[in-house]
Structures are given as C-alpha cells and as structure tokens.
Design a protein that fits this description.
The chain is of the alpha/beta class. It folds into two domains: 199 residues, TIM Barrel (Alpha-Beta Barrel); 143 residues, TIM Barrel. It is 35% helix and 15% strand. Strands 1, 2, 3, 4, 5, 6, 7, 8, 9, 10 and 11 form an eleven-stranded mixed beta sheet that branches. The radius of gyration is 21 Å and the shape is globular. It comes from Rhizodiscina lignyota.
C-alpha cells in the first residue's frame, strides 16, 4: 500500500464517525475495516485487540478529576515492545537483522516482558517505555531493543492507533507513553533529520492531535489527562528547527540530561517553573564478575526502593515533583549472565528471596497510603499480585 493510500486510510478511520453520517453506512464500514487493518499490522507489538472488562482496566475511575498526577502511584513497564521477542521471533527476523551489521545476542538478553500491550492496559499498566528507530530501509519507524528488531511490520503509528482505540473504550483512563530513540540498532543508523521528521509527522497527524494530551512541560490533573496519551519525550529534535520542539506537547526529558545508569537523576523538565523529575534508572549493577545474581538483585532493589522512599517522604517543593523509578535491570556481562528476567524474577534456588519483583511485594505492603510515583517493571505480571499490590498502596477503594 502506498504512503498516500495508507495515510488516506488512517484519515478515513479518524473521520469515520463523520463519514458515517455524511456518506452512509458503506463509508462507516470502510472506516471499521481500515481500523481493523491498522490494528492487525500493530498486533506483533500491541497484541490482538480486546476490550478488557477487568476491574484493573478502569482503576483510574476511582480517583477524582482534581487528583494531581504527580501525587499518584502509576504502574508502568520498561521496554514494552520486547514482550514477543522469543527465539522464534529472532530467527524469523534474521534475514533483516543480518543486514544491520550488528552482532546478535540470545533473545533472553533483550526480552523484558511476556504479555502484549493490550493485556498490559487491561491489567492496569498506564506508563509505557517504547524504543523506536528507522527500519533497515530508513523509511519507517519500528521498534527495537538495541540491535534486536522487534517486528518487521508493526510501526509506531500502527501501535499508537491501538492506544487510541483502547482509550475510546476506556475514557476514564489516562496513558503515559515514553518515547526514546534507540541507538545501536545498525552500524550506520543515526537519529538524523529524516528520523526526526517522521517522528514529528507521526505525532502530529489528525488522529495524534486528537488523542495526545496538549499539556506541555507540566503534569496537571487526572481529569485533564483522561482519554489521552501524555507524552514523555525522551528524544531531542535537534536536527530540526527549534519551532518543532517548541510546538511538541508533553514533558521533555532530553537524553543529554538523562545520565546513564544512575540511581539518582535530577532532571529539570520545565526551566521556567523549575519543575524537576527525580528518576532512578540504575539498570546495570556492574557487580564483581562471577558474583551471584542475589547480589545484583539486592543492589537493584536498594536503588529502586531508595527512590520510592524519596517520593514517599518528600517535603516542600519536592512534594509536588515527579518521581519515576525503573524497577528493571540486567547484568548480562556477568558470568553467568543475569538477564532481565533473572533480575526481575530470580533464578530459582540460587536466589531464595526471589528477584526484584518478589522482594517489592512486602515493601509495597509496608507503604500503605504513600505516594511512590511511577514504577516501571520488567515482567510486570509476575508475581501475579505485583501490580494490584502497588495500586492498593493508595487506592481509594479496592476495585
């Protein structure tokens, strides 16, 4: 399908309800088919669409509209797009990744989730970390984790339509999407003007303008964010005129200010109002080579809970600040390697206390009524009560 026809199809969907009244049922049917096509293309990353009826699919409706988002506990997922990156996926994409010129590691090094985005949404996840770059033809934005291509077909635009449809079905909910350009995808790949132009185009279509929260450089109330995607911009538009950055909604977390592998990042995202995010992103423990996984898990747990405690006990101006903690980690350079799954869930009898996720359960139970902020999990669905326990910390009612 040509880009012109594809764009027209997407436009037809976004105007579908208008067309139905103006031109009759055939146009309405075409709009539905166009949406079905887009969601099918998105499914390797988004999953097969289903309208969730679980209590966790509408947990935000229990909070009043005037609730400040920075005072909420919001569960999220790290490297969202990796859920389907199995050995079979890697082998199916070998003919493409072989052209990238990068060494491939086992899929366990890259995989951080096991359930699709649609399940994440229905399970209560509201913050999503997505990593994009150009495909091998340098024309389409697709998803990677380092050099690991996640899908040959699902584009960023396709996946955003999945979120749009879900928000139509769940208007009480607010979604937060962190977008970051993924480096090291191919030898000659770069975040050049072409990549940035395509990103801007994707985020300024009629559909995107309808569903992206227009807020800029601050987080407001839940009521203003309902039914919308609030964009966390972990990207720069430094190859484009400054007007592009000035007009882009959301919060800007410049990669140049996001220090690498840091347990205590203080990142100013609004210089005029001196608004600061307090971020924990200690993802590679770099413990002594040969040390047991339990040591790396312990170090990671300590770094994450320290930021949670900073959020819970913040005073003064910090009380109204954004706190953002990544519960995710890996140490694949250790011997033997500690994959994201081992860090999150442990390694059987070798880690008797479990992984970071298991150890967070009693910590969350001890923090009743506290604000911890945004928590980004690996393998969020294990243990099965992890997300619910996190939500119950300050939930106005058990849903």
């Amino acid at each position: 399908m040509s880009r012109l026809v594809y764009s027209a199809t997407l436009a037809l969907f976004s105007l579908g309800s208008t067309l139905a009244y103006s031109y009759g049922s055939s146009q309405s049917q075409l709009a539905e088919l166009a949406l079905e096509k887009v969601l099918t293309d998105a499914s390797p990353i988004f999953g097969v669409y289903q309208d969730g009826k679980k209590p966790t699919s509408t947990w935000m409706k229990n909070y009043p509209d005037d609730t400040p988002i920075v005072h909420m506990n919001i569960p999220g997922v790290h490297d969202t797009q990796t859920w389907n990156y199995s050995l079979a996926t890697q082998q199916a994409l070998d003919h493409i990744t072989a052209l990238d010129g990068e060494q491939m590691f086992p899929p366990e090094f890259f995989r951080c989730q096991e359930k699709p985005i649609i399940s994440m949404l229905n399970d209560g996840i509201r913050a999503f970390d997505l990593r994009y770059a150009f495909d091998i033809t340098n024309s389409t934005l697709v998803f990677y984790h380092s050099q690991a291509l996640q899908s040959e077909t699902a584009t960023l635009e396709d996946v955003l339509f999945g979120y749009y449809q879900w928000l139509d079905d769940h208007p009480s909910e607010a979604v937060f999407v962190s977008l970051m350009y993924e480096g090291s995808t191919a030898i000659h790949a770069q975040n050049d003007a072409a990549v940035q132009h395509e990103l801007v185009r994707t985020l300024t279509t009629d559909a995107a303008m309808k569903y992206l929260n227009p807020v800029k450089d601050h987080l407001g109330t839940l009521g203003a964010a309902r039914g919308k995607i609030t964009l966390f911009r972990r990207f720069d538009l430094d190859q484009l005129p400054a007007s592009y950055t000035a007009e882009m909604p959301g919060l800007h977390f410049s990669p140049s200010n996001w220090t690498d592998n840091d347990p205590h990042i203080e990142l100013v995202y609004n210089t005029k109002e001196h608004l600061t995010a307090y971020i924990e992103d200690f993802y590679d423990t770099n413990a002594p080579i040969g040390s047991p996984a339990s040591l790396s898990i312990h170090w990671k747990y300590n770094a994450t809970t320290a930021n949670f405690l900073r959020a819970a006990h913040a005073t003064g101006a910090k009380k109204d600040s954004l706190f953002w903690s990544f519960c995710s980690s890996e140490y694949t350079s250790n011997i033997p390697p500690e994959t994201p799954k081992i860090q999150a869930l442990g390694n059987g009898t070798l880690t008797p206390l479990g992984g970071v996720n298991q150890q967070l359960i009693p910590f969350f139970k001890s923090m009743k009524g506290k604000r911890l902020g945004i928590a980004m999990f690996d393998f969020y669905d294990q243990p099965s009560d992890l997300v619910q326990t996190f939500l119950d910390i300050q939930a106005p009612s058990h849903y």
